[in-house]
Amino acid sequence: MSLETTPSAVQTIGHYDLLEKIAEGGMGAIYRARHRQTGQIVAIKVMPAHMAANKVLLKRFEQEFRAASRLDHPNIVRALDYGDSGNMPYLVMEFVDGESLGKKLERDGRMPEGESIRIIAQVAQGLHRAHKQNLVHRDVKPDNILLTRTGVAKLADLGLVKETEADLNLTRTGRGLGTPNFMAPEQFRSAKHADIRCDIYSLGATLYQMVTGELPFRSNGPLDAWMKKVQNELTAPRLVVPELSERLDWAIMRAMSADPVMRPSTCREFVEDLTGHSTRRLPPVAVVGAQEMWYLVYRDEEGTAHTVKGSAPAIRRSLKEGLMGDASNIRAARTKLGPFAPLRSYPEYRDLVVAPAPLSMAEATATPKPASPTSLTMPPPQDQVTPTNSPVPHIEMVPVAPPETSGHEWLKWLLLLGVVAAGAAVTAFWMLQH
Question: Which among 84, 139, 224, 273 is annotated as catalytic?
Answer without folding.
Answer: 139
